[in-house]
Amino acid sequence: MSSPDATPDVLETMQALWALAHALEERSKWMQRTLGITGPQRLLLRAVGAAPGCTPSVAARRLRLNPGTVSRLMSGLQRNGLLKVAADPRDGRQRRLNLTPRGVLLNGRHHGTVEAAVREALETATPSEASSARRFVLRLTASLTVSERERREGERRNGGGRRPGPRRAAVAR
Prior knowledge:
- The chain is mostly helical and 173 residues long.
- It has two domains: 23-109, Arc Repressor Mutant, subunit A (Orthogonal Bundle); 110-145.
- The protein has helices at residues 8-34, 39-50, 56-63, 67-79, 101-108, 114-124, 127-144, 148-157, and strands spanning 83-87, 95-99.
- The radius of gyration is 20 Å and the shape is globular.
- The N and C termini lie far apart (63 Å).
């Protein structure tokens, strides 16, 4: 008798998810080579295009991303001249995000993007299939998300959250 953790449904679903993760990574690399931005950067570009003047924290919440991740994505988009970040005129501590003219052009391009592939797949799915898929992905995401309690327990086990890394050679003085 097999354990409930190794059922064919679980294994087949995990294989499909790993294939999806690999396909997303490959498409993101292709986008980097051809469009100059990665899939995650494009997601932020689209979010700012849909809500010009939003703050990084609002973008992070809308995209369900960690603020640090959004900050790294912002840096890449700024470096590529696609995003401008300015101080909020009413609250100088806040930053406001807007697309540059180049960002607006790229925001309008869809061919070859992850978004285009999602749109294509949704066009062949029934509304019920699409809705079920979204619910499943969100439920799985919630199950995979490390809770604050799990994070603290991991940090205690790993000596304060430090990852073991390569040892550095001692330097003679």
